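LOG
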Amino acid sequence: MTARYAIYYAPARDSLLWRRAEDWLAQPDLAQHTVSARRYRFHATIKAPMSLALDYAELDAAMDAFADEHRAVTLDGLAPRLIEGFLALTTEPQPGALTALAADVVDAFEPFREPLSEAERARRLRAPLTPRQIELVDAYGYPYVLEQFQFHMTLTDRLPETMREAMRERAAAWFAEALAEPVQLDRLVVFAEPEPGAAFERLDPDYVLRGA
């Protein structure tokens, strides 16, 4: 089976935010509400999972070069919010610099993406998409990029309506200390899915954004 690779933002492994998120997803009483969130791990999608058209060593070198040329972005107002029934850490408002950085990642690493198969394209199109989002699927393999990008770090799967607000309040308390100071999107990380349906694994190294 062919592995898939994704370019995500994830906090440093030794950061309080990463540790609190990992502990959040490991809570036994939340297991039925975090099945997908646990498989994908705590992250924000920047370049969606893809099969590689080039060697992984080339991706590694390109990631390092990209980090040299781009600077960190402050995640303004990062807090737990509900998006269509699931809970995620989102920014409010979303900084233009964040949208621009995500677009740069999508464009810069497009040469590494194998085109979608017909089955993969059909699967993407099962979601209710706008005509513009369908264009983006055909151009980039994913509908939520460029001006359609919304930064979010998923904490739950879709929740029953009756528990959504209580879960948001629980998450706000859980992450309060980790979000007390502004969070920086200061790195990109590659995650790998070894085979279809497997849990994603965070790979080393982190590519710390160090552009002037």
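LOG (cont.) second protein
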Amino acid sequence: MRRAGSPLLSRTNRALAWSAAVALIALAVVAALPLAAQTPAQQSSADGYRVSIHVLTWDGSDPDLEPVPDAGAAFKLNPNRWSPSAMPVRVWLNPAGGPSALPIEDLVRGAIGQWSSIEGSAFRFEYAGTTTADAGACNFTNRQLDGRNTVTFTTSLPSTTLGVTCSVWSGSGNLREFDIQLNASVNWGPSGSLGPGQFDLASTILHELGHGAGLGHPCESANRCTDDERQAVMYPSLKPREERNVLQADDRAAMVEAYPAPGGQSAGFRLVLPVVSRD
């Protein structure tokens, strides 16, 4: 999860660590309640599938952004991946409720293109077009799996949550489906000309699709992150007016490690999350 640097975070972390059901939390913003009370981290049912939630957060600040020097990094791979037979992983978009002033479909296409063109990685997304389908994988009271990986907008998320990804995986460990919910109430802005208090939708979509591919966050907290990790798209927080809409070396290395192309070489380092873990 992307952290907001407040006392609430320590309570949230303790709640998450306490819960053995927490599996891959990644894109949200800290709100009035601990995250564990906002959304269940993992659900299972008689159908044999399990669902994990990824939450993206912001840290509440809007400073002048300064470049940071390069340094070593250690990405994280979640334990659940797409099987080779699932390639390309198709992605749909339900634009209802999204910001009409932004080219949402182009942003989704662009993010798909970045994750699908990493040298040395066999992973591929494919844009499948628009749909009216909802994010059924995120409905924990009446989960509806429709075989579609859908990017949607909703007003039901906490006010400080940018977006969540709900990943469905089977007992074999293979990912089966994911749905993304983006907060329709967030003040989204265009890359390159973000105003005060605006968040970059392109960065959020790119980050969430990384979770859909099976990536975790590169570091647990800001004081444990290297400079390369802070630059990565999969870094667990996003500031207002900050742009993380281009994959960095850490993001690309993770995909090469998770989905090496035939004849490719491993990046040489990896930190793999256990089956039940905090992300």
